[in-house]
Amino acid sequence: MLSPHPPDAGSPVAADRGGDVSVGVLAVQGDVREHIRTIASLGARAVPVRRPGELAALDGLIIPGGESTAMDRLTRSFGLADPLRERIAAGLPVYGSCAGMIMLSDVIADPSLDRHGDPQRSLGGIDMVVRRNAFGRQRESFETDLAFAGLSGAGSVAGEAPVRAVFIRAPWVEKVGRGVQILAQVAAADTPPAGPVEGGPGAGSDRSPGAEPIGAGRPERVARIVAVRSGNLLATSFHPEITGERRVHELFIRMIRGEA
Ligand SMILES: NC(=O)CC[C@H](N)C(=O)O
């Protein structure tokens, strides 16, 4: 379990101090190994999690990228969904990448339906609306450099090297509630590939404070939110774990320690 630390906010995570935190990686589906490798490379203990009983010993949890529909189905059938919701509500630090971001959203704009017509469910925790596969066919998978706020603990992107971000059939965040901090945005199409479900949670304007038009001559492109933080919860649309980028995981470890 997490031991108390002297308040040294902003200091880099040193490998020899990282072993004091246990970071679970939800291991029902998705790119579990890459997160385990990244966490272990930072010196923290990385633990694959498949059973409800494994949650108690964790200081933090990562929900990996993969397929949110399958993750929803499997977490429910493994009896993990409700215990996870309880731990999230009790303040467990959780980082979700891509499908993990979808799992942490309070509302999925375009949930898939099972054969009974029941929509996929998220675990929730972050007051936001997320749209799955939002970047559309042509840009289904792409890489770009992003300005990402707060990586050094300074709370701004000034002087911060950009994050190399890989997006794979990634979601974007359409709306955030109060208390949700926007950490990174990317220029993308104004219109999502499929319209919002009529009358559904995603219906109506999808313009959030982050969706401002970019450039006078290119009104068709807006800034889409791709990284957020809300209290102890962190989510990115992209996969830092597959590019060798470790600063997002470092930020998460500092959040677990109460240093960020
Ligand atoms: N790389 C990813 O995690 C893709 C997410 C996937 N499109 C989903 O809906 O869950």
TrEMBL record:
It holds the Pfam family SNO. GO terms for molecular function: glutaminase activity; pyridoxal 5'-phosphate synthase (glutamine hydrolysing) activity. L-glutamine binds at residues 66-68, 132, 168-169. The active site is at 98 (nucleophile), 239 (charge relay system), 241 (charge relay system). The keyword Hydrolase applies. Residues 190-216 are annotated as: Disordered. InterPro entries: Class_I_gatase-like, PdxT/SNO, PdxT/SNO_CS. Its EC number is 4.3.3.6, 3.5.1.2. Keywords: Glutamine amidotransferase, Hydrolase, Lyase, Pyridoxal phosphate. Pathway: Cofactor biosynthesis; pyridoxal 5'-phosphate biosynthesis. One of its GO terms (biological process) is pyridoxine metabolic process. GO terms for cellular component: cytosol; glutaminase complex. The keyword Disulfide bond does not apply. It catalyses: L-glutamine + H2O = L-glutamate + NH4(+); aldehydo-D-ribose 5-phosphate + D-glyceraldehyde 3-phosphate + L-glutamine = pyridoxal 5'-phosphate + L-glutamate + phosphate + 3 H2O + H(+). In the presence of PdxS, forms a dodecamer of heterodimers. Only shows activity in the heterodimer. Belongs to the glutaminase PdxT/SNO family. Catalyzes the hydrolysis of glutamine to glutamate and ammonia as part of the biosynthesis of pyridoxal 5'-phosphate. The resulting ammonia molecule is channeled to the active site of PdxS. This is Pyridoxal 5'-phosphate synthase subunit PdxT. It comes from Arthrobacter echini. The lineage of its organism: Bacteria, Bacillati, Actinomycetota, Actinomycetes, Micrococcales.
